[in-house]
UniProtKB/TrEMBL annotation, chain B:
Keywords: Cell membrane, Membrane, NAD, Quinone, Translocase, Transmembrane, Transmembrane helix, Transport. HAMAP family: NDH1_NuoN_1 (MF_00445). This is NADH-quinone oxidoreductase subunit N. GO terms for cellular component: endomembrane system; plasma membrane.
Length: 174, 459, 113
């Protein structure tokens, strides 16, 4: 079994992964571009962001892929959703937020393909032993570099976040 | 490097001062903090070096620009005395954000690594988005904040794409060594250069990336319009110069023609657009676009002189702009029509008769902006023309001279209005601090007009 | 293609860089078009996020191509800054909404980019 897996040429796999993630990224972006409903647009952006996270993974940037999902999908997108809800306009407030389940079959199928690709990909990745150790090293490199050569930048990002904290609360306060 | 630390710490202190019972202490304390930052700037005088693993480059040139930025901030902040009367004022937050924003501006004039440039632009811009919307109940201010934010973030995206392409071509974010055309990477490099230029020209409001300028200048509270058109512009031009003269100096043939076209466009759009404006702030916005054109002109010449010319030009432009917006703030404070501050040009009608001091300040500022001899503005224009002449681009210079002639027309509109007669004048009160600032800016404009070498001989 | 990054199994490293550059450029262009054409402030904001994502993808691809961690660190900072920008942007949008709810509902549509 092992031999058989090693002998096969897996080159097609990365093309498949690139195709799936690339399609997801561009498709989500195009959906955001064409949609009339802001909320659906946010879903398009979500698809695009997750696909880009997958592409990060393909480039060996595991740490960034996780951050991408956490920061963008978990943080920024939720913020945007809040923004949509807070500023929803229309005859009634409900109109703008009403979610009608159209194309559910297509989206399910799409989700299934995405999930299948991801699972297959990660299973394959898990099989290769060379991944685990250097990956930890790479994250360590990233961390070391953040705290040594880039420490000034890190501190100044703190200043930026402080401005945002003060400024956003000041502006949005009644 | 020390002002960055100093301003970050004092910004925090200012926030804590906001908890105190007596809000009046925040204003003098902030001015004192800015003065401390100014003093710390000179610790590194004559001690050039690189800090934090080549992140920052400090030399006398950058220290001079730090001083210019901090002094401009002090002069502008001086007008916010008595700010606490206003409904929207939150003095501690506001002064803290101003101090933090200066950190960004300082990073922009002394960066050595593109990460620092990006972060500096971002700190300054985010602070400006917030300050533009500081007048929360004013719909025009809100709209200006939104527009500024969307266009600014868009420009950041373009700038970042350029930086990414630059990284792809060279493998580094350090701007130290010049890059050379050739090989497979030259395509990436061209895209990188173009997009970085576009992103930065957005920030300094050069045409054709100026579309946000008039609306944002008009909508923002006047004090922040002054801030935007002086500090952001000075820092932006130094950053532009640094990128073009170090990293992209090998690509000069490529960006040179682009800058020449942009100069022409900025001068035409700025000056012709300004002619028909009735609002004083919109007039100043178009004037700022045209001044961006003049400052870009310096980049066309050789790099030895360009930085000196940019420095001189930004100082005289800053002085005149602070005077002009300061007069507008003082005069319009009493005039509120339809729930908003009245800022049309005819606000100045009869100013000379009413308050001779303010009229003098306004007239000298306008003359300097128009580039009339014996004011600093004349020498500013003279130096950039001389720089551009060394490049041999005479059609651009002829264009620029023609446009300066048009500029005289619209700068004289407020001047003539202020000389005209008007009955029923309400009295204008100026507080002593504002008077002092007007004295400095006006005196500076005239001194630089008569003895330009005082400043020019610095470097 | 020389990819020295040890974390990369051979299988993965074979996608040529050009594909990523192409993909990132397409995403970036869709983002630009979104900002320029769409008139809704929130959709413009999302398009800007899309542009930043394209930049991130490009940087990561270049970074792994050159096996240099600096590109990845830049991406890290871009993420932080993007989060900050969105927070400020939404604060501005909320402020506008609070003001125009009772005055002029169509203000958001009137804005020109």
């Amino acid at each position: 079994m092992e031999d058989w897996m090693n002998q096969l040429d897996w080159a097609w796999l990365q093309w498949l992964a690139l195709g799936i993630f690339g399609f997801g990224a561009v498709g989500g972006a195009l959906y955001l571009f064409f949609t009339k409903n802001i909320l659906y647009g946010a879903y398009g952006l979500l698809t695009s962001l997750i696909s880009v996270g997958g592409l990060f993974l393909m480039n060996g940037a595991e740490f960034l892929a996780v951050s991408q999902i956490m920061v963008y999908v978990g943080g920024i997108l939720i913020l945007i959703m809040f923004g949509i809800m807070l500023s929803a306009k229309g005859e009634k407030k409900e109109d703008a937020l009403k979610v009608v389940n159209v194309n559910s079959l297509v989206s399910l199928l799409f989700a299934a393909v995405m999930a299948g690709g991801l699972i297959f990909y990660s299973v394959k990745m898990g099989g290769s032993r060379s991944l685990a150790e250097p990956s930890a090293e790479q994250v360590q490199d990233l961390g070391m570099s953040l705290m040594t050569t880039q420490v000034l930048v890190l501190e100044l990002v703190g200043v930026l976040l402080l401005i945002v904290l003060i400024g956003a609360s000041y502006i949005a306060k009644k | 490097m020390y002002p960055i630390i100093s301003l970050s710490v004092t910004g925090l202190l200012t926030l804590f001062l906001g908890f105190s019972e007596n809000k009046k202490i925040v204003f003098p304390a902030s001015i004192a903090f800015l003065l401390i930052a100014l003093a710390t700037a000179f610790i590194d005088w004559n001690a050039p070096g690189f800090y934090f693993n080549d992140m920052l480059q400090v030399n006398n040139t950058s220290i001079v620009f730090w001083a210019i930025l901090i002094i401009s901030a002090i002069l502008i902040m001086g007008f916010s005395e008595g700010f606490e009367r206003f409904e929207f004022a939150q003095p501690a937050e506001y002064f803290a954000i101003v101090q933090f924003s200066l950190v960004g501006a300082i990073m922009m004039v002394s960066f050595k690594n593109l990460i620092m440039l990006f972060l500096g632009i971002e700190i300054l811009s985010v602070a400006m988005y917030v300050l533009t919307g500081a007048d929360k109940r004013n719909i025009r201010g809100n709209e200006a904040a939104l527009k500024y934010f969307l266009m600014g973030a868009f420009a950041t995206g373009i700038l970042l794409f350029g930086m990414a392409m630059f990284y792809g071509a060279t493998g580094t974010f350090n701007i130290g060594s010049g890059v050379f055309i050739g090989g497979d990477n030259s395509f990436f490099l061209w895209i990188g250069c173009t997009f970085m230029l576009i992103g930065m020209l957005f920030k300094v409001a050069a045409a054709p990336f100026h579309l946000w300028t008039p609306d944002v200048y008009e909508g923002a509270p006047t004090i922040f319009t002054a801030y935007m058109s002086t500090i952001v512009k000075t820092a932006g031009f130094v950053a532009l110069f640094k990128v073009l003269s170090t990293t992209f100096s090998g690509l000069q043939d490529f960006w040179w023609i682009m800058i020449a076209v942009l100069v022409t466009l900025s001068l035409m759009i700025g000056n012709i657009g300004a002619v028909s404006q009735n609002s004083f702030k919109r007039l100043m916005a178009y004037s700022s676009i045209s001044h961006a054109g003049f400052m870009l002109l310096a980049l066309l010449g050789d790099h030895e002189n360009a930085l000196g010319s940019i420095m001189f030009y930004s100082v005289v432009y800053t002085l005149a702009t602070i005077s002009a917006f300061g007069v507008l703030m003082v005069v319009s404070k009493e005039r509120i029509e339809k729930g908003r501050v009245y800022e049309q040009n005819d606000l100045f009608k009869g100013l000379a008769q009413n308050n001779g001091f303010l009229a003098t300040v306004l007239i000298i500022a306008m003359l300097s902006l128009a580039g009339i001899p014996l004011t600093g503005g004349f020498w500013g224009k003279f130096f950039v023309f001389r720089d551009a002449a060394s490049s041999g681009l005479f059609w651009v210079i002829i264009m620029a001279v023609l446009m300066s002639a048009i500029a005289i027309y619209y700068y004289f509109k407020p001047v003539l209005l202020s000389m005209s007669k008007k009955t029923s004048l309400e009295s204008i009160t100026i507080n002593p601090l504002a008077k002092f600032i007007f004295a400095i800016t006006t005196f500076g404009t005239i001194v630089l007009g008569i003895f330009p070498w005082i400043l020019r001989s610095l470097f | 293609m020389e990819n020295q990054l040890p974390a990369m199994p051979d299988v993965i490293a074979q996608v040529p860089l050009n594909n990523y550059v192409l993909l990132a450029s397409i995403l970036f262009i869709i983002g630009i078009a979104g900002v320029l054409i769409r008139r809704n402030a929130i959709i413009m904001l999302m398009s800007i996020e899309l542009m930043l994502n394209a930049v991130n993808l490009l940087l990561v691809a270049f970074s792994s191509y050159r096996s240099d961690p600096n590109g990845q660190i830049f991406v890290f900072f871009i993420m932080a800054v993007a989060a900050a920008e969105v927070a400020v942007g939404l604060a501005i949008i909320v402020m506008i909404y609070r003001n125009i709810r009772s005055i002029d509902i169509s203000l958001l549509d009137k804005l020109r980019g």
